[in-house]
Design brief:
The complex is a heterodimer of chains A (350) and B (630). With 350 residues, chain A is an alpha/beta fold. Helices cover 30% and strands 19% of the residues of chain A. Chain A has one domain: 3-Layer(aba) Sandwich (Rossmann fold), CATH 3.40.50.970. Chain B folds into 4 domains: 203 residues, Pyruvate-ferredoxin oxidoreductase, PFOR, domain III (Pyruvate-ferredoxin Oxidoreductase, domain 3); 183 residues, Rossmann fold, CATH 3.40.50; 71 residues, no CATH class; 111 residues, 3-Layer(aba) Sandwich (Rossmann fold), CATH 3.40.50. In chain B, the strands form 5 sheets. In chain B, strands 10, 11, 12, 13, 14, 15, 16 and 22 form an 8-stranded mixed sheet that branches. Chain B is globular and about 85 Å long. Classes of the chains: A alpha/beta (350), B alpha/beta (630). The complex binds thiamine diphosphate and iron/sulfur cluster. The site of thiamine diphosphate has 18 residues of chain A, from helix 2, helix 4 and strand 5.
Chain lengths: 350, 630
């Protein structure tokens, strides 16, 4: 994500490296339910942008339709936002970033928006490795239409009225890894530290960063019997590593204790530090990532953290060999061929 | 006339020969490689200065099903499909007999000898040709014969119809310039066909070609190619599409053009992005995303894709985001007849998506308009901040047409109302959906500029772009959008009107129907003394010219290529009942391009003049047998 340096911090208010205080990263007042996981995620996005010193003018916010998709109205009010149609945000984001590849994009979707109506566009977004952060605010249900099951609901999970889900869930992280996303993570809206680090890392990644963030719906899916409730997720979260993020502009020496940490240095020079927990986890190993996510899910647990990263695959704008300037800003002299070209074309047809 | 013994025949043209007024139909099997042979026929007539047109009637199939190609040469310049076939080239065993039965008396038939057709009708001229024998002689490699066989009929027709062999060779050379081996083989086949015909038939056909001077400087091109050149010249930067007949060749042409002419010289990088999307929903979504950020973006599709684009089109309308969408119309609801032509998407496109929506549509009828309206569409779409549709069709998009060369665009691009510092200062304050100029068009801001950001949404919003479910906010917005649509009326291309002083009857048409109207009006005048005025629509919404035209006439016939009189339905939405009472319909929906005869007959029938014409026709041609039609 593009960052720029601004005025030096003045004492009093806490200012970031471009001289802004956190309020300048806020959005409109949320209209989501109090306690909704989605609000917590918005807070983390605000913090991450503040901490990184993101220039809001260089950010596009995109979403589909759902409670989750309303969130972009609640952060970064100085960024342009587009609350599009249900399940089709990936295509809008694709067009937007092709039109201006110098922008950073944060897409917010829901598990219904992505896993049901939008699964096709999701699949192709992952394949293309469009450089953007794609967040699924995953609550296992359709919040905005009042609590029906979504495709990420687990087998045996129940609705409030007792209806049992009998279809297997779609694991969006497994899909994303298999389809070619180059940064895949799972987190929990209640895990401040991990989510913040992941968001900052995702924003520093060059390629599609897909984050599935478990985000309980307190109104329709927070009861006993739900596998997406606060208490269930809290009890069944299994972090793969203790994760921290060191931005490129911070001069912090990373403690090395042989065999206990792994570091992933990102494109912009920032570093993800993974401190070993039960066992050593290597997020650059695709087969291992898939195995671990599956195995953990099989135990009814959620493997969280950075599941997979590939820093070698080209992002979509690079694949298309776009000029350095935004296509949207090219002057007519560069987009309308000359009179001679038209004459040549006419000659071909004679 | 039966086949003749060459030894006994003089090589002199038939007396009373019809010159530069004939149609040729080539009936082959799809995938048998007749494309080149047919193009050579068209090109050589064109090079002889004779007005010519071609219609490819092909199946939705890669190989094996019957396909027909009709070529019309006409000294008067009529280029619409002609119903009657004067000369058949029967290469397809499966359809040959039926093809022969539908010919007008006096027609000629070149056929593959083993088909043995000559006993079928006594009133036709038959020319059997042993294609296999001839091709074996010129092409020893059996595997290549398929690519050469059809060129033999070009040679045969060159002789029989006096289409100059030299022009055929020139056309062949142009067509196969990069394939030397194929060129040599085809040249030999051409000559073999000519020599065989000369040696065998002696007498030429009762139709023939003679050099004219009407095509100098003109080009031959397909509408999709013309539209692609228009998009190139409009400075399009983002293209997203999903393959569908008959639209694919538009984006495919555009890809070729962009790769050639839009690579930055200094860096070797692309000044464009073209994406083959996962479906039409994604294609139009990408166009909307790109246009929202300020790029010129387009997609191209056909009916099924238009149906899928509904929801996004409504978003574009309500959130006021530009988008240029080409609809190369094909036949039918559902999959329909994918390779046949129609004007059947008008109503569904004009009102595409739920809620109250209206979309401007441009209606090209020529190669020049495929080109210029592509550019108009981008200007209008950015000016009006709304999706604009270009309603082409298969006939226009995929068939070859003559055209004057395209003029270089002299106008600067119209990028519409994009807020900048000076405007903001002049306006004082800015609201995304505020009508500050009284034309219903608000000012928009673009990301990555120093103008204020806003939140674009398809949900309810007020003038400031804030979320709102208030009835008055909604209504005010919808009324402004209606005002904006009225502004569109003043910006879209005006119709072309030809008012004939004493005409009581007016004809209205648009798109490819135009060419059959040109000829039909002449027929109405020549055959029944019926003078007609004509208005050719170039766009929706309608301009004032439409009402004025109806007012001038007692009865107005709207001729269109669909079952439900869709253009009349759109007129009904805005014309008063007195005017609508004057409107009648002539409808054509067989999937074949509309022809003049069908229009003439339908108008005469509705005017109660059909009997008079039939009598006049019988008097003209007292010996004609009652066979023909389709
Ligand atoms: C085409 C279409 N179909 C249905 C809907 C209704 N709808 C709105 S939001 C939604 C589901 C949202 O669920 P999810 O994406 O999981 O988001 P959440 O509200 O749970 O955050 C549905 C079905 C719609 N807006 N558009
Ligand atoms: S309904 Fe559920 S998802 Fe929607 S805002 Fe309320 S808690 Fe959040």
């Amino acid at each position: 994500m593009t960052t720029s340096t601004g005025a030096a911090p003045s004492p009093g208010r806490k200012l970031n490296r471009i001289g802004l205080d956190v309020s300048q990263y806020r959005g409109g007042k949320t209209t989501l339910c109090a306690g909704c996981g989605h609000n917590a995620i918005s807070e983390r996005i605000i913090e991450a942008c503040f901490d990184l010193g993101v220039d809001a003018k260089k950010v596009l916010k995109l979403s589909g339709i759902g409670c989750s998709s309303k969130s972009p109205a609640y952060f970064l009010s100085q960024s342009h936002g587009f609350n599009s149609v249900h399940g089709r945000m990936p295509s809008v984001a694709t067009g937007a970033l092709l039109a201006n590849k110098t922008m950073a994009a944060i897409g917010i979707s829901g598990d219904g928006d992505t896993g049901a109506i939008g699964i096709g566009q999701f699949v192709h977004l992952m394949r293309r490795n469009l450089p953007m952060v794609y967040i699924i605010e995953d609550n296992g249900c359709y919040g905005l239409t009042k609590g029906q099951f979504s495709p990420t609901a687990d087998v045996g999970s129940t609705l409030k009225n007792g209806v049992v889900n009998d279809l297997p869930p779609i694991d969006t992280c497994i899909m994303a890894i298999e389809l070619g996303a180059t940064f895949v993570a799972r987190s929990f809206s209640g895990d401040k530290k991990q989510l913040s680090a992941l968001l900052k890392a995702a924003m520093s990644h060059k390629g599609t960063a897909m984050l599935d963030v478990l985000s309980p719906c307190v109104t329709f899916n927070d009861h006993e019997g739900s596998t997406k409730s606060y208490s269930y997720v809290k009890d069944h979260e299994e972090p793969l590593a203790d994760l921290s993020f060191v931005p490129y502009f911070e001069d912090i020496a990373i403690e090395h204790e042989e065999g206990t940490t792994r570091e992933v240095v990102l494109h912009d020079g920032s570093t993800i530090v993974l401190r070993k927990l039960d066992h050593d986890y290597d997020p650059t190993n695709k087969a291992e990532a898939l195995r671990v996510v599956r195995e953990t899910a099989g135990r009814g647990e959620y493997a969280t953290g950075l599941l997979f990263i590939d820093q070698h695959k080209r992002d979509f704008c690079t694949t298309l060999n776009l000029v350095d300037e935004p296509l949207a800003a090219l002057p007519v002299e560069r987009t309308r061929p000359s009179r001679a070209v038209l004459e040549l074309l006419m000659d071909h047809q004679r | 006339m039966a086949t003749t013994d060459p030894a006994l025949q003089p090589t002199a043209p038939t007396t009373g020969r019809t010159i530069n007024e004939f149609s040729i139909q080539v009936a082959t099997v799809n995938g048998s490689g007749s494309q080149t042979a047919n193009l050579i026929l068209i090109r050589s007539l064109f090079q002889m200065g004779i007005p010519v047109s071609g219609k490819n009637l092909f199946p939705s199939n890669i190989a094996g099903l019957p396909t027909w190609y009709t070529i019309r040469a006409n000294k008067h310049g009529y280029v619409a499909r002609k119903k009657e076939i004067d000369f058949l080239v029967a290469m397809n065993a499966e359809t040959a007999r039926e093809d022969v039965q539908t010919l007008e008396p006096g027609a000629g038939v070149v056929y593959d000898e083993p088909l043995n057709l000559k006993a079928l009708r006594p009133d036709l001229s038959f020319y059997p040709v042993p294609f296999d024998k001839l091709v074996a002689a010129v092409c020893p490699d059996a595997k290549l014969r398929r690519l050469v066989r059809n060129t033999i009929y070009d040679g045969v027709l060159s002789y029989l119809l006096d289409i100059e062999l030299g022009e055929m060779e020139k056309a062949l050379t142009k067509q196969l310039a990069k394939k030397q081996k194929a060129l040599v083989l085809n040249m030999a086949a051409l000559k073999a066909g000519f020599d065989y015909a000369e040696a065998t038939f002696g007498q030429k056909a009762s139709f023939g070609a003679e050099r004219m001077n009407t095509t100098a400087g003109k080009i031959l091109i397909e509408g999709n190619q013309a539209a692609a050149i228009g998009c190139l010249m409009a400075g399009v930067t983002v293209v997203a599409w999903y393959p569908i007949t008959p639209s694919s060749s538009l984006c495919e042409s555009l890809i070729d053009l962009m790769r050639k002419y839009r690579i930055d010289k200094a860096t070797g990088k692309a000044t464009f992005a073209i994406v083959q999307a996962e479906d039409e929903i994604a294609a139009v979504g990408m166009v909307i995303g790109a246009s929202w950020v300020g790029a010129r973006a387009m997609t191209s599709t056909s009916g099924p894709g238009i149906s899928l684009m509904g929801e996004f089109t409504g978003l574009g309308y309500y959130a006021e985001v530009p988008a240029v969408i080409f609809d190369i119309q094909r036949v039918g609801p559902s999959t329909g007849l994918p390779t046949r032509t129609a004007q059947g998407d008008l109503l569904s496109t004009a009102l595409l998506s739920h809620g109250d929506t209206r979309h401007p549509m441009l209606l090209p009828s020529s190669m020049r308009e495929c080109y210029s309206m592509a550019m108009d569409a981008f200007d209008l779409s950015e000016r009006l901040q709304t999706p604009v549709f270009v309603m082409s069709d298969l006939d226009l998009g995929m068939n070859i047409w003559m055209s004057e060369p395209f003029p270089y665009p002299e106008q600067p691009l119209d990028r519409g109302k994009v807020l900048d510092k000076a405007t903001l200062e002049r306006l004082g304050a800015w609201g995304r959906y505020k009508d500050v100029d009284g034309d219903g068009i608000p000012w928009r801001t673009l990301p990555d500029t120093d103008m204020p950001a806003y939140f674009t949404r398809g949900s309810g919003h007020n003038e400031m772009g804030q979320y709102s479910e208030r009835g008055d906010d909604y209504q005010r917005n919808l009324d402004r959008l209606a005002r904006k649509f009225d502004t569109a009326r003043t910006l879209v291309p005006k119709p072309e009107v030809d008012v004939v002083a004493d005409a009581r009857i007016g004809l209205i048409a648009f798109g490819t129907t135009h060419w059959a109207i040109v000829e039909g009006r002449d027929q109405l005048w020549q055959e029944a003394g019926l003078a007609t005025s004509y208005l050719r629509l170039k766009a929706y919404p309608f301009t004032d010219d439409l009402a004025a035209f109806i007012d001038r006439h007692d009865r107005v016939y709207v001729v269109e290529q669909n079952r439900d009189a869709q253009m009349v339905a759109l007129m009904r939405m805005e014309l008063d009942p007195v005017r609508i009472a004057k409107v009648r319909s002539v409808l054509h929906y067989s999937g074949l391009p509309i022809d003049a005869r069908s229009i003439t007959d339908a108008v005469l029938a509705q005017e109660g003049l059909a009997v008079a014409r039939a009598a006049a026709r019988a008097a003209d041609a007292p010996n004609a047998a009652g066979v023909g039609g389709e």
